[in-house]
Specification:
CATH class: Alpha Beta
Oligomer: single chain
Structural class: alpha+beta
Distance between the termini: 91 Å
Strand content: 35-45%
Pfam families: DUF4440 (PF14534)
Shape: globular
Radius of gyration: 22 Å
Number of strands: 6
Helix content: 25-40%
CATH architecture: Roll
Largest sheet: 6 strands, mixed
Order of helices and strands: HHHEEHEEEE
CATH topology: Nuclear Transport Factor 2, Chain: A
Number of domains: 1
InterPro entries: DUF4440 (IPR027843), NTF2-like_dom_sf (IPR032710)
Domain DUF4440: 43-137
Protein name: Nuclear transport factor 2 family protein
Organism: Thermoanaerobaculum aquaticum
């Protein structure tokens, strides 16, 4: 009799609702938004868990490899007193392929102060991978921007 009562109690007990499954594209776009916020506020600590150790960046005429190489310029800008006054990601398109995702977008960035003061804009392709714990991280970024000549180089 006690067993029957316990069985009935468990059958009638309210079960917590399972939250609806968030589509993978939305998860990737949320990660992209967190990356945008971190870049906007030059917050390398916020960006660090969102970027793979082996992340690569190709932007303009430069190529960086590794999380530290990606984050260090942001830290330097912040220390130099630079402020990102505007950072927009427009025409965003995300495609998920299993545990990988590709996001393309147009970006506009305005920086006040520091060595990179001014406006930059272009197109970006970001590649994400889904870790075993379900978190999406940035593994590659390719930003198409005009090359800036280095001092002393021929135009």
């Amino acid at each position: 009799m006690v067993a029957l009562l316990l069985l009935l109690a468990t059958l009638q007990a309210p079960t917590p609702e399972t939250p609806p499954e968030v589509p993978p594209e939305a998860q990737v776009l949320q990660t992209l938004e967190e990356l945008r916020k971190g870049e906007m506020f030059l917050d390398a600590d916020h960006l660090e868990p969102l970027v793979a150790y082996s992340m690569t960046l190709v932007e303009g005429c430069r190529r960086l490899s590794g999380r530290a190489a990606f984050l260090e310029p942001l830290r330097s800008l912040r220390e130099a007193g630079a402020v990102v006054t505007r950072l927009l990601f427009q025409e965003v398109n995300a495609r998920v392929y299993g545990a990988s995702a590709v996001v393309t977008y147009r970006f506009v960035r305005q920086v006040k102060g520091g060595p990179e003061a001014g406006k930059s804009e272009g197109f970006s392709t970001d590649v994400f991978e889904k870790r075993e714990d379900g978190v999406w991280i940035l593994v590659h970024r390719h930003r198409v921007t005009p090359c800036r000549p280095h001092p002393g180089s021929a135009p």
